[in-house]
Structure formats: structure tokens, C-alpha cells
Amino acid sequence: MTSKLEALLSHSARHMRASEIRELLKLLNTTDMISFAGGLPNPDAFPIGPLKKAVNHVLDEHAREALQYSVTEGHTQLRNAIAAGMGKEYNLSQSAANILITTGSQQALNLLAQVFLDPDDVVLTENPTYLGALLTFRACRARVETVPMDHEGMCIDLAEKKLGELRQQNRLPKFIYTIPNFQNPTGISMSIRRREKLYALLAEYDLLLVEDDPYGMLRFEGERPLLIKNFDQEERVLYLGSFSKILAPGFRVGWIAGRQEILNRLSLAKQAQDLCTNAFGQYCVYEAIHHKMLFPHIAKIVRLYKTKRDLMLQALDRHFPAGVTWNRPAGGMFLWVMLPGNLNALSLLSRAIEQKVAYVPGEPFFPSGGGHNTLRLNFSFAADDQIDVGIARLGRVFKEALAQRAAEDGGDGMEIF
User: Fold this and answer.
1) Distance of alpha carbon 370 from alpha carbon 390, whole angstroms
2) What is this structure's pTM?
3) How far is the C-alpha of 125 from the C-alpha of 368, rounded, in Å?
4) Which residues contact 31 (CB under 8 A, 6 or more apart)?
5) H-helix or E-strand containing 177?
6) What sign for the dihedral angle of Cα 203, 204, 206, 207?
7) What is the CA radius of gyration of the chain?
């Protein structure tokens, strides 16, 4: 039977590939490893004390409902609370009918792919972009077309050019996917000017947009820009939110806000996937909102992560060699490092792991190729006293690699995106 397994698999299953990042994380489960690799919230950011009270309240007052199956669309009070929160925090008028609760943002992406994508359909993304989204789109055998980024996010003039080319080929994308706030992997935020122009392209080309925003509340400095959905007068934007980064990922509670007609389709697809998001987690998240735990807790996370970002930036200044550059994200969990173009971040990873420090090479985030000399550093997870030690180790790895390459060919060309 084992020998026939490949023939029994679906076409999609035969083309599934493991996430390079997930496979990497399996190697890091050692006590002396300093990891800047995963996109993990810091456990010190979990509001354990307040959540104990919320959990006990749920068990004391709502156990019969919270331990039962829920409706597919999600806990009604939670949907109402999210709709009200989006109105208050984002100036986006919503109702519960515009909210679908999902098992994290990853399920939201999966539902969107299932509902909209057939084999060979096109999705347009930033280059680089979130690896989990790429895995989902490719599992549906979609074709991922890309637009380069710079320090203001997706280059909208190049997006317009790409859309013109795709229209001539009769291959316009089913939707555009973007992470406009503190993007994974780069930490870059899209400028307000480009957000407005991107929405104008949606109207011009009659397209949908998936606005993925797991990090937007984690802002350390500057004013919060309008969401792209704030420009959405024609219900073209599907907004993805998540409690994983602002409360706790273990609840696996996220949401989609968008046109009710689309959410009805997504709900049907969700019924076939998991019937409903876990009810107990939904009740606990609702209690955190209802008892006004959430926003004081977000303020605590922001203070914690800002300190860690600053510590990492200071360590980079001290320990990284000339020719290596990086950005300064105004929030989120990641910063982006560019090595000289004659170095390969994936090839250097094994040397870093030997030195008991880990990062994520940038290349897998580039669906259209490139990025061999880039890497993502997560600053949220490591302990404060580990950050300088880990960056010093990485600095030694890169200095040695540069010295070795200089001895071999003397080249030090740069490639950013």
C-alpha cells in the first residue's frame, strides 16, 4: 500500500511543500539557542492573571454554551464587539453581519483561497510577502504574480503596470493581497498616499483586495494611518484581523470583515472545514474585550516590544559589519536585514545555527525570485539579555563570511529587493 500512496494523493497534495520556516523551527528547540526566527509573541506578553479571571468567568457563567459547538459565523457577542471596535478604533462602521470569526488569520486566507481560486487563477502580492499566504495560494495551484516593494511598501506605479499587462493577457487577479502595516517579513508599512492609490486601482480594474492586518495595533511611534478599508466605498476590501498578536495565539481567534455576500460564501466553506471556531476561545476573547482588558494589554505589549526593537537596533549598530543594512520598523515584530549581494543568507544559516543563533532567510518570501541576500529578524520573542548576545553572534558570522568572500573574489555588490 505504501508504494501506491503517491498515486492516491490529490494533485494538490502531491505539490504541497513544507514551510521552510516551520521546518527550521523544529531545529531550534534547544535551551541554549537564541532564536530571532519565529514570528512568535513573547510569553511575557500573555495576560495570564487577567485571563484566569476571564476563563473562570466563562466557566462559572457560560460553561454550557462555551463548551458546546458554536454557530459557523461565530459567537454573536464577539462579532458585535469586533464590529463596534472597528467603528471606534478605525472609524469603520460595521455590523455583526459584516464579521466572520475564523480559526486565526491563516484560516481566513484558506477560506478566501478556497472560495475564489481555481487552478491557474492569479493572485497579486507584494514581493516579498507572507509565506503562509504563499503556501495557501499555491496549494490551490494559483499563480502568484508580484509587485516590488520599497520603503513605502508596494510600488503602486509598478502595480498599475503589472495590472495593465495582466489585463492584456486576460489574466487579471482574483484579488490583491497586502499586509500594509509592519509587513511580514519586512516590517515596512505602506504610505497613506499609496494606500489611497491602491484603492483607486481596485476601482479602475474592478478588483477585490485582501488587507491582512495582524500587527497594526502594535505601533511604537507615529500616528496610525487609515486602513485601505477606510477608502472602501464599494465593498471591495476584505479586512483580516487577529487576536493572536494582541492577546494570545493559543485561542486561534481571528476575523474577516467584509461584504456580507462574500462572507456568506466563506461561511459555507468554513462549515466544510471545521464547522465553527472553538467556542471556548471565542467566549474568552469576548470577556477580555467586554471587561476592558484588551486595550490596556495592547499598551503593555507595545511598551515591551518597543524596548526589544530598540535593543536590537542598538545591537545591530554595535555588531554588524559595514555593508550590512537594515530598516527601523515603527511597530510590529520584525525588521529586515540586507547583506551585501555576494552573500547568501540561506547558505549562512547553518553557520549561524552552529553559533546557537537563528534567523529566517528572506529568499522563501519572494515568490518571483530574489532576496538571496536578505533575512528577517524577529525582535519580540528573545529575552532582553539575549538580544545583544545573539546579534553579536550573527555579526561574527557575517564578518567571517565577508572576509572569506573578499579573499575569494573581492566583490561586495548590493541587492535590496
Assistant:
1) 26
2) 0.93
3) 10
4) none
5) strand 175-178
6) negative
7) 22
